[in-house]
Amino acid sequence: MSNPGSSGLLNGLELLAPARDASIGIEAINHGADAVYIGGPAFGARAGAGNSVAEIARLVLHAHRFDARIFVAFNTILRDDELEPARKLAWQLFDAGVDALIIQDMGLLEIDLPPIALHASTQTDIRTPEKALFLQDVGFSQIVLARELDLQHIQAIRAATDPGRCTLEFFVHGALCVAYSGQCYISHAHTGRSANRGECSQACRLPYQVVDDRGRFVAHDKHVLSMKDNNQSANLAALVDAGIRSFKIEGRYKDMGYVKNTTAHYRQLLDALLEQRPELVKTSSGNTRFTFTPDPQQNFNREFTDYFVQGRKADIGAFDSPKNPGHPIGYVTRVNADSVELELDDTGQMLSNGDGLCYYDLQQELQGLAINRAQAMDAAKGLWRVFPKDALADLKDLRKGVQVNRNRDINWTRQLEKTSSERRIAVWMRFDETAQGFALSLTDASGITGLARVDTDKQVARNPAQATDNLRYNLAKLGNTIYELATAVEHIAITLSQVWFVPTSVVNALRRAAVDDLEHKRLAAYTRVPRAVALEPPATYPEDTLSYLANVYNHKARDFYARHGVRLIAAAYESLEEEGEVSLMITRHCVRFSLSLCPKQAKGITGVQGTVKAEPLTLINGKDKLTLRFDCKPCEMHVMGRMRKSVAQNSATQSQTIRFYRTRPTQSTQ
Prior knowledge:
Elements: E1 12-19, H1 22-30, E2 35-39, H2 53-65, E3 69-74, H3 83-95, E4 100-103, E5 117-120, H4 129-137, E6 142-144, H5 151-160, E7 167-174, H6 186-191, E8 208-211, E9 217-222, E10 229-231, H7 236-242, E11 244-249, H8 256-276, E12 281-282, E13 287-290, E14 304-305, E15 327-335, E16 340-344, E17 356-360, E18 366-378, E19 383-388, E20 403-408, H9 410-417, E21 421-433, E22 437-444, E23 449-455, E24 459-460, H10 464-475, E25 483-485, E26 492-495, E27 500-501, H11 504-525, E28 545-546, H12 555-563, E29 568-569, E30 582-587, H13 591-594, E31 605-607, E32 610-612, E33 617-621, E34 624-631, E35 636-641, H14 645-654
Parallel strand pairs: 1-2, 1-11, 1-12, 2-3, 3-4, 4-5, 5-6, 6-7, 7-11, 10-14, 21-25, 21-26, 28-29
Antiparallel strand pairs: 7-10, 8-9, 8-33, 13-21, 15-16, 15-20, 16-19, 17-18, 17-20, 18-19, 21-22, 22-23, 24-27, 30-35, 31-32, 33-34, 34-35
């Protein structure tokens, strides 16, 4: 089987796709994913993307046909009363055939989990070689690195860990959390919805006023915490060289079209890389063909960035809008009472009923214009008239000369609503005669053979050439299966004492039986990666003190860290112990740098109001105020704030309060 069969993928490259539900997961497999991650009925960091165990089992069965793996996101922090339900669910998922659990809460390692592989979620905030090595040594066979790492950081982590024991996974596409994952508490502080418990309110996508220490505006209504979308298409080879073996697409809330298109895009890129690098292999079986040309630009995106992989850049933010700005297609030439006339940049482009257009108004806010009806005035010259679905009076600042973008191409969308790919496993056929009739075997690239026999009378063919052609033709009819001949009909070996006439009905029955036998044998041969064995004696955690930033929310998690040498353990932010102003977000993104206020760029900027100092800065959205503090040595930004009183009061009535050590204990208390 192509399944790696060990904790490390070594030279295998894994394309890991998201799934909101089982049907999307099945299409991810069909479009080339080597693995899929999906949420279960509870305890996933996307609370709105849960699935029943039965649905996950359906996805598992389809994936394992192609040696593809299924991971379940099990990555919230848990209360003490949730540990037993989590344990029961973990066993149900294991019994359903799931290959791995993606977890954040270390308390799970202290309970009776099934012998299932464990992956360390990106929520565990893996930024250093020391943290990565620790997670490997306590039993994680795959770890999801922080999105903010550059190639040098990744290389250092790979050098510190064992590729035979621990696979490095990295996000290569999709929406970006501006915070280090697991290090954002704004949602809980302002709404009571904890990002670490799957209920993020996405405060990072809100508009903010940015004010200096004298109350002067540095930026007005800008989405200064909103990042562009991740796209590592140009960096895959460099990431492979740095040690990444699992390439993860973000998007468990995304729709079917996004998953189909993005998975197909990266499947093609990785296949091209595999073609160039024969020492690398796929981790699943089958070749995928598409009925469309994949294009990530067609899906919702906030424009793209490769973030920090190639070093810090100034243009990583989507400050004007968290929406999809689309791509320029032309300009407004006239605004009529009920329509808008456009001149397209490319006369080969077409507009269609149902397309989505947008433009920026005078305040640089994105405005949408959905087309109810598109009419070509002179398509050869790129002249079009569109009738919007909404009243023109509601389209703010729409006027002659405004650049128009398209952010929804209805024809593209409809392509992906149909069957858009097929995935087939190559087989070799052998047709033999037996004493009582005939036999057919199908062998795949892993050497697994399906075999079928039929007892029947034999008749000498009256027309040997025609009989042979008909036999090959009928044997090759694999169209309604997941199999295909390796290259051509020459890969059907026919061994007969003489040319017999074999009825089509006999050939069809033999072929179906051989396919069924191969299918059963492949599934029987599939092996799940076993749970990695933790080192003994227990590995020592890199630090002996943990603050609320470690997200310890139950006593089993506390026991885990104590067992690994941590002496001072604070409870998670959600436990309500942090009553004053604290870091509600830690991020490598720097507002000061993005606004050209970094001391490394300039001492300050001089404008009509004088010199604007870089620090302190305040973010204001309505009644909420957040203070930005800058830690220049590691080049990080802390967003400081405090929990709303109403949230604290409400949370105190709804959830347990956990208190661990407030001071360093003596040795005798351990």
